[in-house]
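Q: Please design a sequence for this.
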């Protein structure tokens, strides 16, 4: 693997080189002292990753990564800069894959780059590029989601201000409230105010819900025939709710829990892409999975050359979502390929997706070989039944408490 490091301070580059040598990193490393020099080097050699400082004279790190993202989209892009450069970093949020605070020890840097490149290898294939190229256009990130994301970066953002952002879009507001009041979220009473929805669901859950609604609505406009996008979204939201419960039970920190909730809400969007491209082949994949008694994602690989998990992750990477979320979506059917094997947001999503098949009844369905290996590796198999009981009990209690009739689900 070849990595290009960019910093206008030669001393910082020498220090970084010494750290990498001490860490015994098996990379080919090149160094540039300006964005302009980095671009020249990119034109003469192939780099797996570019790691750049933010504040540099002339072309800064944000401009450099925007250039790399446009001309070398398969190159991993990382900002290594001081936390005080926050405003500048936000300008490159859509171009970078990861931000690391400066100074950063070599072990963390090595892990971050190896992990990002490992995920890239999952998402870069001729079959995947051919499939995505079959779309007439890719859906865009909903404007409300962008505004919410920007607002939530402000530590002074209030529940009221977040709710008012959603309320600006009447169609989005109607759909958010319709879904919030569905049985999936198990709220004890009817909600008619988006500000109240924020206070009960939390800003991060609302943000992921807004993103999912926007995606599903755009794919409806693209024309997804012979496929119920509404049923798929109900499944994604159910997995998201279960992920939140399991994540809290296992004490994921706030950022990890937010990533897990968002990834769970979006984990199956690749199915929308496949049905937009070739609904007939999707039907063949479903039939093949049933006849051969194999998971759907394996049948998709045999027919399309890629599965819906990789396709969904590719779409999220195009949008510049965080690598942690992209990784969960990409690996939710193949979690043994994860860079680190331990309980994580990925585990919570994988377990929730598996448990969602059981409904409220026991025994649990038989997991496929991939899941059996993963649950054994993470040592969480004995917790699956307790997690299932947790999710079933919460849903049952809230159903008993609910008095207001649920609004009828409408098609996306």
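A: Design:
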């Amino acid at each position: 693997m070849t990595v290009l490091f960019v910093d206008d301070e030669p001393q910082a580059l020498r220090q970084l080189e010494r750290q990498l040598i001490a860490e015994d990193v098996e990379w080919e490393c090149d160094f540039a002292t300006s964005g302009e020099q980095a671009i020249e080097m990119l034109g003469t050699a192939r780099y797996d990753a570019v790691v750049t400082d933010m504040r540099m004279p002339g072309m800064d790190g944000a401009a450099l990564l925007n250039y790399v993202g446009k001309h070398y989209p398969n190159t991993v892009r990382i900002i290594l800069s001081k936390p005080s450069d926050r405003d500048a970093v936000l300008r490159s949020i859509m171009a970078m894959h990861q931000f690391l605070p400066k100074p950063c020890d070599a072990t963390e840097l090595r892990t971050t780059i190896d992990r990002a490149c490992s995920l890239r290898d999952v998402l870069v294939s001729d079959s995947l590029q051919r499939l995505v190229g079959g779309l007439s256009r890719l859906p865009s990130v909903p404007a409300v989601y962008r505004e919410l994301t920007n607002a939530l970066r402000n530590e002074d953002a209030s529940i009221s201000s977040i709710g008012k952002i959603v309320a600006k879009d009447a169609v989005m507001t109607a759909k958010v409230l319709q879904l919030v009041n569905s049985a999936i979220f198990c709220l004890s009473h009817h909600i008619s105010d988006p500000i109240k929805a924020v206070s009960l669901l939390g800003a991060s859950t609302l943000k992921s819900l807004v993103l999912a609604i926007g995606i599903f609505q755009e794919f409806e406009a693209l024309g997804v025939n012979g496929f119920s996008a509404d049923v798929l979204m109900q499944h994604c939201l159910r997995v998201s709710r279960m992920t939140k419960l399991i994540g809290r039970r296992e004490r994921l920190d706030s950022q990890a829990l937010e990533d897990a909730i968002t990834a769970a809400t979006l984990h199956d969007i690749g199915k929308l892409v496949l049905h937009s491209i070739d609904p007939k082949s999707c039907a063949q994949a479903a039939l093949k999975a049933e006849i051969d008694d194999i998971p759907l994602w394996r049948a998709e690989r045999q027919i399309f050359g890629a599965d819906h998990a990789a396709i969904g992750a590719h779409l999220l990477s195009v949008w510049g979502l965080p690598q942690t979320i992209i990784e969960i979506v990409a690996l939710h059917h193949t979690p043994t390929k994860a860079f680190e094997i331990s309980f994580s947001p990925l585990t919570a999503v994988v377990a929730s997706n598996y448990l969602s098949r059981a409904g409220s009844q026991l025994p649990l369905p038989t997991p496929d070989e991939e899941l059996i290996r993963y649950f054994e590796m993470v040592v969480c198999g004995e917790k699956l039944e307790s997690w299932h009981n947790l999710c079933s009990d919460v849903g049952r209690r809230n159903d008993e408490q609910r008095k207001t009739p649920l609004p009828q689900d409408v098609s996306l």
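Q: Thanks. Anything notable?
A: The domain at 2-124 is CATH 3.40.50.2300 (Rossmann fold). The chain is about 60% helix and 5% strand.
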